[in-house]
Amino acid sequence: EVQLLESGGGLVQPGGSLRLSCAASGFTFSSYAMSWVRQAPGKGLEWVSGISGSGGNTYYADSVQGRFTVSRDSSKNTVYLQMDSLRAEDTAIYYCAKGGPPRAVVILYYFDYWGQGTLVTVSS
Amino acid sequence: QSALTQPRSVSGSPGQSVTISCTGTSSDVGGYNYVSWYQQHPGKAPKLMIYDVSKRPSGVPDRFSGSKSGNTASLTISGLQAEDEADYYCCSYAGSYTLYVFGTGTKVTVL
Questions:
Q1: Cα–Cα distance, B9 to B80 (Å, whole number)
Q2: Which tens digits make up the pLDDT trace of A102-117?
Q3: pLDDT value at B1 more than 80
Q4: Measured between beta carbons, which residues in chain A are less than 8 angstroms from residue B57?
Q5: Quick check: B30 contacting A, CB < 8 Å?
Q6: Is B92:B4 a contact under the CB 8 Å cutoff?
Q7: Which pLDDT does position A66 carry in this prediction?
Q8: Residue A27's closest CA among A121, A106, A119?
Q9: Residue contacts between A and B (CB atoms, under 8 Å)
């Protein structure tokens, strides 16, 4: 059974940093790209970032380019999202999702499994 | 990259059919056959319902179907059931820079 478990969310002040983690199980982690998708309170979904299966290619939405960094550790089956220079508009539930960037052993142009999400609140 | 355009809400009685449209551009929906649809119940994570325009993952009822014409994709729910009441989002691959763009979301109400 595929499971994605996010952690690391919380309350942070504007300009601060936070690192999210997503522990994956139930599939061959290194064969799939992974993505982060966020949802602001009462709003729609926004693709934020993605990383190839090997970790050698990373991708970002314009809204977070230069502030967020995605990475993965295959020894721990975990993907990370380092978020720096946080702004109020980054407040959202952040979901980890399997699939996305078309650079992997198994290419998925969609997100077939999602975690339960972790809430990030940026406020003073 | 702007969000794909969906109607804010659609509704139907049990047993009826409803169709949700998802309008983009030639740079996303019209340019690739990589449209997916997600169902989201309140407080829950999104669930994949349709991928690659019209393919259904294992376990998704065949009441759900997808199609595309030009820059507009559509999700049809036939034989509407109470448990189909949820928010639905389309998503399209948009190329090697933007990667993915989601739709604005549609609330489906079962009357």
A1: 15
A2: 888 878 899 999 999 9
A3: no
A4: 112
A5: no
A6: yes
A7: 97
A8: A106
A9: 63
Residues from chain B that touch A118, judged by Cβ atoms under 8 A, are none
Are B38 and B88 spatial neighbours (Cβ–Cβ below 8 Å)? yes
| Pair A103, A51: CB distance under 8 Å | no
Q: Which residue matches tokens 């982060």?
A: A36
Closest Cβ opposite residue B100 in set A100, A112, A114: A100
Say how far apart CA B97 and CA A65 lie, in whole Å.
11
Q: Per DSSP, what are the bridge partners of residue A96?
A: A36
**Helix (H/G/I), strand (E/B), else coil: A43:** coil
Tokens 């550790």 — which residue?
A73
pLDDT of B27-66, one tens digit each?
999 999 999 999 999 999 999 999 999 999 999 999 999 9
Structure tokens at A98: 């399997």
Query: A58, A51 in Cβ contact below 8 A?
Result: yes
In angstroms, the CA A28 to CA B25 distance is: 35
Segment A38-64 shows an average pLDDT of 96
Amino acid identity, position A31: S
